[in-house]
Fold this sequence. Notes:
Elements: H1 2-36, H2 38-45, H3 55-75, H4 78-83, H5 85-109, H6 117-142, H7 146-160, H8 162-177, H9 181-191, H10 194-209
Helix pairs in contact: 1-2, 1-3, 1-8, 3-5, 5-6, 6-7, 6-9, 7-10, 8-9
Amino acid sequence: xxxxLYTFHRLAMTCGVVCVVLSFxxxxxxxLPYLFDHNSYFEFFGDRDPTGDRFWLAVLHILPAxxxxxxxxxxxxxxxxxxxxxxxxxxxxIYLCSVFASTFGALAMTPYSLGGTGNSMGFGLLxxxxxxxxxxxxxxxxxxxxxxxxxxxxxxxxxxxxGVTLRIQLGIMTGLIGMSFAQAYSIAAxxxxxxxLIVATILIRYSVEG
Length: 210
């Protein structure tokens, strides 16, 4: 019985890792073209930025967000924190700067979100909560409150993953359910990050109680 449970656990973990890697790859595949291909940018933002004046604001949002997305798991790694604490500090500072830069770009682009005011509010609130949780995590570690720092960092990275859940939800809603992209985008402006916070909060409470 133990062998069956162990095999099932390993299989579930493997499937989870594969899903995460594919999700990351899909997110990068969608986001990176905006950085190097103006045509991709105009295809999405053309009606709201016909002259391309805000292209660099999009780059400022996307590039640091990708950095935060990629280094976040390293920052949450217990092994790095315990055995290479200096690296943990360096990664943390890079993550902090990435979130702050990406948030600035996001807030600057928010008024031009596809779908109007409702979407702007959703993504704008996401940006504010993202930078707030990250700043709070930094504030706690500066005062030596390690457990609170880790809890707030978990919330911060859950919001960083909104870029991943956004693409997953858009794929499900447009590909499987048959919604238009505009409809799906209006829903995902909120559902791409609020459930992340809920799940992260449950995990934090479970780890504290455990």
